[in-house]
Amino acid sequence: MRKKNQTTFEGSRVDPIIDKYNAEQGSLISILQDIQAEYRYLPREALEHVARRLNIPVVQAFGVATFFRAFTLEPRGRQLIHVCMGTACHVRGSQNVLEEVERKLEIKAGGTTPDGEYTLETVNCVGACALGPVVIRNEEYLSHMTPTKVSGLLKKV
Amino acid sequence: MRISSVKELDELRREIQDSRDPDRPRITVCGGTGCSATGCKGVAGMLRVGLKSRELEGRVDLSVTGCHGFCECGPIVIVYPQGIFYQRVTPEDVDEIITETIEHGKPVERLLYRDPVTGEKKIHETDIPFYQKQMRLTIGNNTAIDPASISDYLATGGYSALAKVLYGMAPEAVIEEIKRSGLRGRGGGGFPTGVKWESTRNAPGDIKYVICNADEGDPGAYMDRSILEGNPHSVLEGMIIGAYAIGSHEGYVYVRNEYPLAVANTATAIQQARELGLLGEDILGSGFSFDIRINRGGGAFVCGESTALMASLEGKPGEPRAKYIHTSEKGLWDMPSNLNNVETWANVPLIINRGSQWYSRIGTESSKGTKVFSLVGKINNTGLVEVPMGITLREIIFDIGGGIPGGRRLKAVQTGGPSGGCIPEALIDLPVDYERLAEVGSMMGSGGMIVMDENTCMVDIARYFTSFLQEESCGKCVPCREGLFRLGEILTDITQGRGRMEDLPIIEDLSEMLKDASLCGLGTTAANPVMSTLNYFRDEYVAHIRDGKCPAGVCRELIAFRIDREKCTGCGVCMKNCPSGAITGEKKQTHVLNTERCTKCGICYDSCRFDAVKKE
Amino acid sequence: MSEKNRSRGEMVTFMLNGARVQADPGSSLLEAIRFYGLDIPTLCYDEGLTPYGACRLCVVEVGSGKREKLVASCVHPVREGLEVRTHSNRVLKTRKMILELLIARCPGSKKLQDMASELELKEIKFRPLNDDCILCGLCVRMCEEQMAARAIGFAGRGRDRYITTPFDMTSEECRKCGACMYICPACELRCQGTGAETVLCSGCINTEPVCASRYDDAMCFMVPCLSCVRTPEDVK
């Protein structure tokens, strides 16, 4: 294991996370999740650092980071808007809700507003099917969404 | 405190039970996802404040429980000992509940469930039609248990099955019992659970893994979430019993990161079980050791597939591999591994406690026990329902689900998640079990049941699922990656008016190839939604292609909106709501819709109260 | 599971297109079938690398009656008594469809064109794209298993899957050995339109603009000829 005092700037924030999982290869996803919670995205240096510490090829860490939907390599906005596109929400019109959010924020799903305030993402079912269409603002579930309700949930950007 | 014998466990249980007065008032608030979104936290908070301010704190218990299932009517509050069932409770109602029910023992009429048919008010959960036809074996205890309290679980007989197994049954006998019960995997495939355990037990190797698949990715299904959130110990107990039978000492719960409460409650439960010596070294002093850790999923539907899940547990992308050599022989880290889903594990303690004979009497010839379905979509009583296998779709949709909203007609039910099929209304008397669903081109899957009415376009549904699966395909094998891409291309063409009749045989060929040649279960079943809709609703495909019409009025390129001059009152609601500024008109004058600017989002159609916006 | 207890060296007997044949117990169906001289097309398989089971061209039909199914022969072990059919109608139809999907994505690959002519695939029903990579992953396994470099790998998933270096930047691990290019089945001899060495059907060599579609007897067998497609717009 590398000596603590040798770690880089990224390492000093990332090492405790890796140590929590004993630098096990099998914990790669959990480690990346915690790093993302820390930085709101996965910085390149952090991924490279994790790969070194877990003794896996960088390309494997990169593959995992781009395979799973939960991860992003670009900084996210301060507020996360998730529009659920699960089946139950779809048959109740989630497409219209998404389009209205896209219009209001002037970004497409997957994008971040230029001021870094909002990131808009879609998610395939959050298991709140009874309440569809569902929009999740940060951690808060907003139920029975309609395009008309959308403007109320977003501050004018 | 560690318990090191069955006697100590029984003593602890009795102690907990004795300390509880059945007549003591108790309020439970449903804390499931549905009720959380409708504001149960506020209700629970107000109750806490209310009880405190009236100095009732020490005399009335208050607990936030897991999902009660009737999400449509949330937030749900039940007051014991009477068991009065309140629905759609708001923080403002709390005061009245405390005054009327807690202090005076009377129900608050206006918060009771009202039968939509008879208009009668129902006081108890068991009087409500939604609950009457159900058989809530695995999710029933959610209403009685605080998921953060192991005492609650012990009070309801928790971990007695584990004690019975560790001290009275050989591993082979446990496997035999599970085999005799007829329990089959609740995650999709329906493989006999006992047989799976047996082959993992018999596989050579000292290290074996037991895995709980809680990567519930089927859109429209959330029963695993509710069980883990509401009663995590039942899953842990099932896993420990399974591990004992299989001869495993290490277990994993692979749970979606999108389910933070499930992650938290499972982690708490594992911690509590360890502290009591129900998990870890020398469980209950029996000499058997087993521990469980949690891994959070990264958000990939394909990880519901066992080999993909195991790859991601190894820190790799969730890419499946060929299963010609079963995971029971070579699974996680190439060791024998046994994977079952949440609901399957939760059934295990029940079978051990009440016996395989009892269990196998429930259900049909080939499908035993109960199954939890999430009843969602165009249905009155949205929620989680647990029913005996063999119940008909009609009973689920109409007797339990209360039928279709707005008096519209049922068109189809989609079961089995994105790779299931759409079952048309004509087959509504189908008894639900593994075989019968497969016969009609669908499958059990993990139990999503999405109800569709006449306003649902079946071609659009096929396109939706295909595009979902395209995004979720890992992309490893050609049939799934390229085949779904081309299917999606063709279906998009059809929904946008560019379809050709010769596309239909191409769809069939592609579907056949997907089923035959794909690497994993995602690909081999991916064509189900397309094939079942093409099979039962071919006329809708033809209408899109030949007549350029979408009969359900969904596909935007094929519909147009206009305002009926006779009916428009000039109220201005549509104009105010139109996101693209396509509607103009003076107050109290007939409004006009500019078709050039119209994006066909349908907001005007939905918001008009005078039926003046026409879709054609 | 009788083969598990079999002592090393004892042969497994199975039925290959109706003939009783024997194979080494550790071998895959593909190895056993090729040992008997039968031709099975593959794109993601190489003798020196771990079988991957991704291109699915090597599918064969096994079992009988209700249990009849297709399996990828490169990753399926030989088993005692297994009935194997390598060229049934179902097998051929499936291979053809898979190849059609691949050619529609990478119309310029000589390897795919050659395979198409062998399988008598003459028409592509899908809109051609103009990709180079068929994602067979041979280069990834070559880099990892033979070169021990692990410089390239898969990124993304589903339709967005691609092969790349970490962060799509020059990789420190890459020694520029060229093994990935050496083993690539898709980009070798990509049809360049002109040049005697690389052209698919010679139809286009002396024409301007370079397009073979005007030749009815183009040797790549495609109708219309896809060998010189440069951009998707060209074929519209």
Question: Any overview of this molecule?
Answer:
The complex is a heterotrimer of chains A (157), B (616) and C (236). With 157 residues, chain A is of the alpha+beta class. Chain A has seven helices and four strands; from the N terminus they run ααααβααβββα. A four-stranded mixed sheet of chain A has the order 2-1-3-4, with helices on one face. In chain A, α1 crosses α2 and α2 runs antiparallel to α3. Chain B has five domains: 105 residues, Glutaredoxin, CATH 3.40.30; 210 residues, NADH-ubiquinone oxidoreductase 51kDa subunit (Rossmann fold, 3-Layer(aba) Sandwich), CATH 3.40.50.11540; 84 residues, Roll (Ubiquitin-like (UB roll)), CATH 3.10.20.600; 89 residues, NADH-ubiquinone oxidoreductase 51kDa subunit, iron-sulphur binding domain (de novo design (two linked rop proteins)); 56 residues, 2-Layer Sandwich (Alpha-Beta Plaits), CATH 3.30.70.20. In chain B, strands 12-11-15-13-14 form a five-stranded mixed sheet. In chain B, strands 2-1-3-4 form a four-stranded mixed sheet, with helices on one face. In chain B, strands 9-8-7-10 form a four-stranded parallel sheet, with helices on both faces. In chain B, β3 and β4 form a beta hairpin. Chain B has 616 residues and is of the alpha/beta class. Chain B is 39% helix and 14% strand. Chain C contains six helices and seven strands. In chain C, strands 2-1-5-3-4 form a five-stranded mixed sheet, with helices on both faces. Chain C has a two-stranded antiparallel ribbon with strand order 6-7. The relative contact order of chain C is 0.12. Chains in contact: A-B, A-C, B-C.
Chain-wise SSE layout:
The complex is a heterotrimer of chains A (157), B (616) and C (236).
Chain A: H1 9-20, H2 28-39, H3 44-54, H4 58-67, E1 79-84, H5 87-91, H6 94-105, E2 118-123, E3 135-137, E4 140-142, H7 147-153
Parallel strand pairs in A: 1-2
Antiparallel strand pairs in A: 1-3, 3-4
Helix pairs in contact in A: 1-2, 1-3, 2-3, 3-4, 6-7
Chain B: H1 6-18, E1 26-30, H2 33-37, H3 40-53, E2 61-65, E3 77-80, E4 84-86, H4 94-104, E5 113-114, E6 121-122, H5 129-132, H6 150-155, H7 160-168, H8 171-181, H9 193-202, E7 209-214, H10 223-230, H11 232-246, E8 250-255, H12 260-275, E9 291-296, H13 306-313, E10 337-341, H14 342-354, H15 356-360, E11 370-377, E12 383-388, H16 393-400, E13 410-415, E14 421-424, H17 434-439, E15 448-453, H18 458-472, H19 478-495, H20 503-517, H21 521-525, H22 528-536, H23 538-546, E16 561-563, H24 573-577, E17 583-584, E18 592-593, H25 603-607, E19 613-615
Parallel strand pairs in B: 1-2, 7-8, 7-10, 8-9, 11-15
Antiparallel strand pairs in B: 1-3, 3-4, 5-6, 11-12, 13-14, 13-15, 16-19, 17-18
Chain C: H1 2-5, E1 12-16, E2 19-23, H2 29-35, E3 59-62, E4 69-72, E5 83-85, H3 89-105, H4 110-118, H5 138-146, E6 153-155, E7 162-164, H6 179-183
Parallel strand pairs in C: 1-5
Antiparallel strand pairs in C: 1-2, 3-4, 3-5, 6-7
